[in-house]
Design goal:
By secondary structure, the chain is an alpha/beta fold. The chain folds into 2 domains: 241 residues, QueA-like (3-Layer(aba) Sandwich); 81 residues, QueA-like (Thrombin, subunit H, Beta Barrel). 19% of the residues lie in helices and 28% in strands. The chain contains 7 helices and 17 strands. The strands form 3 sheets. It has a 9-stranded mixed β-sheet with strand order 2-1-17-16-14-3-12-13-15. α6 crosses α7. The chain is globular, with a radius of gyration of 21 Å.
């Protein structure tokens, strides 16, 4: 398939700017591959699709307050510094994106929090990318949790609020490291997870720190030539055991989101099981692709021509998925990070 196969028109009024409230009351589209059918429920009814012995694989990554606003030395020009990833914890070195980039050069210092925190630009990486060294002492994540803003996606055209700090985070987020939420997981509540566990469903946590590369524009028509950014992931031996037991007992593995799918598919054995792993993955999944682990996929409605849409297409089948998207647009479903959700069976 080609990039142009993943283009579709979306009215801007369907882009969700606020989450569903309560978070498990989002609309849920059901794509049934075996029956080639499309149905609709509410997300809190998803437990009806689980059986005792199934497992739910969730991404425990936690979003940090990655968007900082500071002032450039001497000129006091306002500069946005978007934290991407920590390169060296001992020397406080980070990869960042700056805006406006034309004002930020090697050697410049940017001050935050009334001058208590500052960083110095030590290298250029891309047109907007910079490598910086911070002067901080103590727990850096504690500092930015206080002064930073929730890194809402660029298509949510409003400023982040304190409410976003909670709503743009899954209820099971535990391991700090993501600059974007694994959004399919935003629909779960603690009560809903408890209901699934009471039903005999095992929760299998993985970690994949979602980076901006997940949303990077695909610029090549030939998808085999697209390169994903590397993202850190971890699958523990305990989680691998839960998933493999589910596979061996012929029960269903539900993957919550494309990030979870990419994590487990990055650590598959020759016989179709999952092995413990810790490292980096740049796995790019697009049609055709034979999924080895997940039997069910829970996912949001994604950007046109995005890698997330391509993974969803590979899982659901392109024709069924695009019929679902066409119906979602016609019926007024809410799209993207804070939008409604889809269960692919």
């Amino acid at each position: 398939m080609k990039l142009s196969d993943f283009k579709y028109p979306l009215p801007r009024n369907l882009i969700a700017k606020q989450p569903a409230s309560p978070r498990d009351h989002a609309r849920m589209m059901i794509l049934n591959r075996a029956e080639d059918s499309i149905d609709e429920r509410k997300f809190y009814e998803i437990a009806d699709y689980f059986q005792k012995g199934d497992c739910l694989v969730v991404n425990e990554t936690k979003v940090f307050q990655a968007r900082l606003y500071g002032k450039k030395e001497k000129t006091n020009a306002k500069i946005e510094v978007f934290l991407l990833r920590e390169l060296n914890a001992e020397e406080n070195i980070w990869d960042v994106i700056v805006d406006p980039a034309r004002k930020v050069r090697i050697g410049n210092k940017i001050y935050f929090d009334d001058g208590k925190l500052w960083c110095e630009v030590i290298d250029n990486t891309t047109s907007r990318g910079r490598t910086v060294r911070f002067n901080h002492k103590g727990d850096f994540f504690k500092i930015i949790d206080r002064i930073g803003l929730t890194p809402l996606p660029h298509y949510i055209k409003r400023d982040a609020t304190n409410k976003d700090k909670e709503s743009y985070q899954t209820v099971y987020a535990r391991v700090v490291g993501a600059v974007a939420a694994p959004t399919a997981g935003l629909h779960f509540t603690k009560a809903l997870l408890k209901k699934l566990q009471t039903k005999g469903v095992k929760i299998a946590p993985v970690v994949l720190h979602v980076g901006l590369g997940t949303f990077r524009t695909v610029e090549v028509e030939d998808l085999t030539k697209h390169k994903m950014d590397s993202e850190f992931f971890e699958i523990t031996s305990e989680t691998a055991g839960i998933i493999n037991k589910t596979i061996d007992s012929k029960h269903n593995v539900f993957a919550v989101g494309t990030s979870t799918c990419r994590a487990v598919e990055s650590s598959v054995t020759a016989d179709g099981h999952v092995k413990p792993a810790k490292g980096w993955t740049d796995k790019f999944i697009f049609p055709p692709y034979d999924f080895k682990v997940a039997d069910r996929l829970i996912t949001n409605f994604h950007l046109p021509e995005s890698t997330l849409l391509m993974l969803s297409s590979a899982f659901a089948g392109h024709d069924l998925l695009m019929r679902g998207y066409k119906k979602a647009i016609k019926d007024g479903f809410r799209f993207y990070s804070y939008g409604d959700v889809m269960l692919v069976m």
